[in-house]
Design brief:
Length: 275
Protein backbone atom coordinates (compact mmCIF):
# COMPACT_ATOMS: atom_id res chain seq x y z
CA UNK A 1 0.00 0.00 0.00
CA UNK A 2 2.82 2.42 0.90
CA UNK A 3 4.47 1.74 -2.45
CA UNK A 4 1.22 2.48 -4.25
CA UNK A 5 0.85 5.77 -2.38
CA UNK A 6 4.43 6.76 -3.19
CA UNK A 7 3.96 5.95 -6.86
CA UNK A 8 0.80 8.04 -6.89
CA UNK A 9 2.62 10.98 -5.31
CA UNK A 10 5.53 10.85 -7.76
CA UNK A 11 3.15 10.52 -10.69
CA UNK A 12 1.43 13.69 -9.57
CA UNK A 13 4.66 15.69 -9.20
CA UNK A 14 4.76 17.05 -12.77
CA UNK A 15 1.18 18.29 -12.42
CA UNK A 16 1.92 19.73 -8.98
CA UNK A 17 5.01 21.47 -10.35
CA UNK A 18 2.94 22.98 -13.15
CA UNK A 19 0.22 24.14 -10.78
CA UNK A 20 2.76 25.52 -8.32
CA UNK A 21 4.74 27.48 -10.92
CA UNK A 22 5.62 30.87 -9.51
CA UNK A 23 5.34 34.02 -11.59
CA UNK A 24 6.95 37.34 -10.76
CA UNK A 25 4.99 39.37 -13.31
CA UNK A 26 1.28 39.30 -14.11
CA UNK A 27 -0.74 40.53 -17.06
CA UNK A 28 -4.48 40.53 -17.90
CA UNK A 29 -4.50 36.76 -18.50
CA UNK A 30 -2.37 35.79 -15.49
CA UNK A 31 1.28 34.91 -14.94
CA UNK A 32 3.90 35.98 -17.46
CA UNK A 33 6.89 33.65 -17.85
CA UNK A 34 10.13 35.63 -17.95
CA UNK A 35 13.79 34.74 -18.38
CA UNK A 36 16.56 37.13 -17.38
CA UNK A 37 20.04 36.91 -18.89
CA UNK A 38 22.83 38.80 -17.11
CA UNK A 39 26.43 39.42 -18.20
CA UNK A 40 28.92 36.86 -16.86
CA UNK A 41 30.15 37.75 -13.40
CA UNK A 42 27.52 40.44 -12.93
CA UNK A 43 26.72 41.15 -9.26
CA UNK A 44 23.13 42.36 -8.87
CA UNK A 45 23.99 43.62 -5.41
CA UNK A 46 26.74 46.03 -6.44
CA UNK A 47 26.86 46.37 -10.24
CA UNK A 48 24.65 48.23 -12.70
CA UNK A 49 24.01 47.61 -16.38
CA UNK A 50 21.55 48.41 -19.18
CA UNK A 51 18.59 46.10 -19.78
CA UNK A 52 16.67 45.23 -22.96
CA UNK A 53 13.14 43.82 -23.02
CA UNK A 54 12.84 41.23 -25.80
CA UNK A 55 9.37 40.71 -27.32
CA UNK A 56 8.65 37.72 -29.56
CA UNK A 57 6.19 37.47 -32.44
CA UNK A 58 2.80 35.81 -32.78
CA UNK A 59 2.74 32.00 -32.33
CA UNK A 60 6.33 32.18 -31.04
CA UNK A 61 7.94 32.39 -27.58
CA UNK A 62 10.86 33.75 -25.61
CA UNK A 63 12.79 30.53 -26.27
CA UNK A 64 12.48 30.55 -30.07
CA UNK A 65 14.96 32.25 -32.40
CA UNK A 66 15.96 35.06 -32.47
CA UNK A 67 15.36 35.77 -28.76
CA UNK A 68 17.88 33.35 -27.14
CA UNK A 69 20.60 34.40 -29.57
CA UNK A 70 19.97 38.08 -28.90
CA UNK A 71 19.99 37.55 -25.14
CA UNK A 72 23.32 35.70 -25.32
CA UNK A 73 24.99 38.28 -27.55
CA UNK A 74 23.75 41.21 -25.47
CA UNK A 75 25.08 39.61 -22.28
CA UNK A 76 28.45 39.02 -23.90
CA UNK A 77 28.72 42.79 -24.38
CA UNK A 78 27.59 43.76 -20.87
CA UNK A 79 23.88 44.29 -21.54
CA UNK A 80 21.27 42.33 -19.60
CA UNK A 81 17.93 41.28 -21.04
CA UNK A 82 14.53 40.00 -20.01
CA UNK A 83 12.66 37.96 -22.57
CA UNK A 84 9.12 36.87 -21.84
CA UNK A 85 6.17 34.95 -23.23
CA UNK A 86 3.09 36.96 -24.07
CA UNK A 87 -0.19 35.62 -22.69
CA UNK A 88 -1.28 32.42 -24.37
CA UNK A 89 2.25 31.78 -25.64
CA UNK A 90 5.03 29.59 -24.30
CA UNK A 91 4.85 29.12 -20.54
CA UNK A 92 2.68 32.13 -19.75
CA UNK A 93 -0.89 31.73 -18.61
CA UNK A 94 -3.93 32.37 -20.77
CA UNK A 95 -5.24 31.01 -24.07
CA UNK A 96 -3.94 31.95 -27.49
CA UNK A 97 -7.55 32.36 -28.58
CA UNK A 98 -8.03 35.19 -26.03
CA UNK A 99 -4.88 37.10 -27.03
CA UNK A 100 -5.20 40.65 -28.35
CA UNK A 101 -2.67 43.40 -29.04
CA UNK A 102 -4.10 45.41 -26.16
CA UNK A 103 -3.44 42.51 -23.80
CA UNK A 104 0.08 42.13 -25.13
CA UNK A 105 0.62 45.85 -24.55
CA UNK A 106 -0.47 45.30 -20.95
CA UNK A 107 1.94 42.35 -20.66
CA UNK A 108 4.79 44.50 -21.97
CA UNK A 109 3.94 47.31 -19.54
CA UNK A 110 3.90 44.84 -16.64
CA UNK A 111 7.38 43.58 -17.56
CA UNK A 112 8.55 47.17 -18.01
CA UNK A 113 7.37 48.06 -14.50
CA UNK A 114 9.11 44.98 -13.11
CA UNK A 115 12.41 45.82 -14.81
CA UNK A 116 12.29 49.51 -13.90
CA UNK A 117 12.01 48.56 -10.24
CA UNK A 118 15.21 46.48 -10.30
CA UNK A 119 17.96 48.44 -8.50
CA UNK A 120 20.77 47.23 -10.78
CA UNK A 121 19.21 48.45 -14.06
CA UNK A 122 20.78 51.66 -15.34
CA UNK A 123 18.73 52.14 -18.52
CA UNK A 124 16.15 50.22 -20.56
CA UNK A 125 15.65 49.53 -24.25
CA UNK A 126 12.88 47.69 -26.07
CA UNK A 127 13.19 45.16 -28.89
CA UNK A 128 10.38 43.45 -30.76
CA UNK A 129 10.26 40.94 -33.60
CA UNK A 130 7.25 40.64 -35.94
CA UNK A 131 4.05 41.22 -33.93
CA UNK A 132 6.35 41.85 -30.97
CA UNK A 133 7.71 44.76 -32.99
CA UNK A 134 4.24 46.29 -33.16
CA UNK A 135 3.88 45.86 -29.41
CA UNK A 136 7.36 47.27 -28.71
CA UNK A 137 6.72 50.32 -30.90
CA UNK A 138 3.33 51.05 -29.35
CA UNK A 139 4.64 50.44 -25.84
CA UNK A 140 7.46 52.91 -26.43
CA UNK A 141 4.96 55.46 -27.73
CA UNK A 142 2.66 55.05 -24.76
CA UNK A 143 5.52 55.22 -22.28
CA UNK A 144 6.84 58.36 -23.96
CA UNK A 145 3.41 59.96 -23.67
CA UNK A 146 3.44 59.10 -19.98
CA UNK A 147 6.88 60.69 -19.53
CA UNK A 148 8.87 57.51 -18.94
CA UNK A 149 10.23 56.47 -22.33
CA UNK A 150 12.84 53.78 -22.99
CA UNK A 151 16.24 54.99 -24.14
CA UNK A 152 16.17 53.16 -27.49
CA UNK A 153 14.04 50.79 -29.59
CA UNK A 154 14.86 48.05 -32.10
CA UNK A 155 12.16 46.68 -34.41
CA UNK A 156 12.96 43.51 -36.38
CA UNK A 157 10.53 42.96 -39.27
CA UNK A 158 7.76 44.76 -37.34
CA UNK A 159 4.48 43.09 -38.31
CA UNK A 160 2.19 46.08 -38.76
CA UNK A 161 0.67 44.15 -41.67
CA UNK A 162 -1.54 42.42 -39.07
CA UNK A 163 -3.94 45.37 -39.25
CA UNK A 164 -4.28 45.08 -43.04
CA UNK A 165 -4.65 41.30 -42.75
CA UNK A 166 -7.52 41.58 -40.29
CA UNK A 167 -9.20 44.32 -42.32
CA UNK A 168 -8.88 42.19 -45.45
CA UNK A 169 -10.21 39.01 -43.85
CA UNK A 170 -7.13 36.89 -44.52
CA UNK A 171 -4.62 35.96 -41.83
CA UNK A 172 -1.92 33.56 -43.00
CA UNK A 173 -3.91 30.73 -44.63
CA UNK A 174 -7.21 31.47 -42.84
CA UNK A 175 -10.00 33.54 -44.37
CA UNK A 176 -12.98 35.17 -42.64
CA UNK A 177 -15.55 37.95 -42.88
CA UNK A 178 -13.73 40.95 -41.33
CA UNK A 179 -17.00 42.62 -40.38
CA UNK A 180 -18.34 39.55 -38.64
CA UNK A 181 -15.54 37.08 -37.89
CA UNK A 182 -16.28 33.73 -36.22
CA UNK A 183 -15.52 32.91 -32.60
CA UNK A 184 -12.04 31.97 -33.77
CA UNK A 185 -10.07 31.07 -36.89
CA UNK A 186 -7.39 28.40 -37.24
CA UNK A 187 -4.08 29.34 -38.78
CA UNK A 188 -2.37 26.30 -40.30
CA UNK A 189 -5.12 24.20 -38.79
CA UNK A 190 -4.12 24.45 -35.12
CA UNK A 191 -3.23 28.03 -34.05
CA UNK A 192 -6.40 29.79 -32.90
CA UNK A 193 -6.99 33.52 -33.19
CA UNK A 194 -10.13 34.78 -31.49
CA UNK A 195 -12.87 37.09 -32.71
CA UNK A 196 -11.74 39.89 -30.36
CA UNK A 197 -8.25 39.88 -31.88
CA UNK A 198 -9.62 39.91 -35.42
CA UNK A 199 -11.91 42.87 -34.69
CA UNK A 200 -9.72 45.03 -32.43
CA UNK A 201 -6.60 44.71 -34.57
CA UNK A 202 -8.51 46.41 -37.39
CA UNK A 203 -8.82 49.55 -35.25
CA UNK A 204 -5.23 49.85 -34.01
CA UNK A 205 -3.47 53.20 -34.42
CA UNK A 206 -0.11 51.50 -34.81
CA UNK A 207 1.97 54.25 -36.39
CA UNK A 208 0.21 57.10 -34.61
CA UNK A 209 0.96 55.56 -31.23
CA UNK A 210 4.53 54.65 -32.19
CA UNK A 211 5.23 58.21 -33.36
CA UNK A 212 5.12 59.54 -29.79
CA UNK A 213 8.50 57.92 -29.13
CA UNK A 214 11.21 60.42 -30.11
CA UNK A 215 14.32 58.45 -29.19
CA UNK A 216 16.67 56.44 -31.43
CA UNK A 217 15.12 53.57 -33.42
CA UNK A 218 16.79 50.83 -35.45
CA UNK A 219 14.73 48.92 -38.01
CA UNK A 220 16.05 45.61 -39.32
CA UNK A 221 14.28 43.73 -42.11
CA UNK A 222 15.31 40.77 -44.25
CA UNK A 223 15.06 41.20 -48.01
CA UNK A 224 13.69 37.64 -48.31
CA UNK A 225 10.98 38.04 -45.66
CA UNK A 226 7.94 36.22 -47.02
CA UNK A 227 5.65 37.01 -44.07
CA UNK A 228 6.04 40.70 -43.21
CA UNK A 229 6.56 42.90 -46.29
CA UNK A 230 9.32 45.50 -46.37
CA UNK A 231 6.79 48.31 -46.62
CA UNK A 232 5.99 47.81 -42.92
CA UNK A 233 9.49 48.88 -41.91
CA UNK A 234 9.48 51.61 -44.54
CA UNK A 235 6.26 52.99 -43.08
CA UNK A 236 7.81 52.96 -39.62
CA UNK A 237 10.85 54.80 -41.00
CA UNK A 238 8.56 57.44 -42.49
CA UNK A 239 6.72 57.68 -39.16
CA UNK A 240 9.82 58.14 -37.03
CA UNK A 241 11.73 60.43 -39.37
CA UNK A 242 15.36 61.34 -38.82
CA UNK A 243 15.73 59.58 -35.46
CA UNK A 244 15.34 56.14 -37.07
CA UNK A 245 17.41 54.03 -39.45
CA UNK A 246 16.35 51.07 -41.59
CA UNK A 247 18.90 48.39 -42.40
CA UNK A 248 17.91 45.82 -44.98
CA UNK A 249 19.52 42.45 -44.26
CA UNK A 250 20.29 40.90 -47.64
CA UNK A 251 18.91 37.37 -48.03
CA UNK A 252 17.43 37.13 -44.53
CA UNK A 253 14.00 35.63 -43.96
CA UNK A 254 11.32 36.43 -41.41
CA UNK A 255 12.50 33.84 -38.90
CA UNK A 256 16.02 35.30 -38.78
CA UNK A 257 17.54 31.90 -39.47
CA UNK A 258 20.10 32.70 -42.19
CA UNK A 259 21.90 35.85 -41.01
CA UNK A 260 21.18 35.72 -37.29
CA UNK A 261 24.73 36.69 -36.28
CA UNK A 262 24.61 39.75 -38.53
CA UNK A 263 21.26 40.71 -37.03
CA UNK A 264 22.56 40.14 -33.49
CA UNK A 265 25.66 42.26 -34.15
CA UNK A 266 23.52 45.12 -35.45
CA UNK A 267 21.25 44.92 -32.40
CA UNK A 268 24.10 44.82 -29.88
CA UNK A 269 26.04 47.66 -31.53
CA UNK A 270 22.94 49.84 -31.55
CA UNK A 271 22.15 49.26 -27.89
CA UNK A 272 25.80 49.71 -26.88
CA UNK A 273 25.69 53.14 -28.47
CA UNK A 274 22.28 54.22 -27.16
CA UNK A 275 21.81 52.69 -23.71
Amino acid sequence: MKRLILLSVFAALPLFSLLAREYQVFGPEGGIAIKMTLPDGFDTGSDKCPMVLLMHGIFSSKDINPMPTLAKELAARGIASVRFDFDGHGKSEGRMQDMTIEKELADAKAVWDYVKALPFVSSVGLLGHSQGGVVASMTAGRLASAGTAPEAVVLIAPGSVIKDACQGGKFFNATFDPKDPPEFIRCWGFMKLGREYLLTTQELDIYGTAADFKGPVLLLHGTKDGIVPMWCSEKYLETYGDHAELKRIEGENHLISKKKQIVADEVVSFFEENL
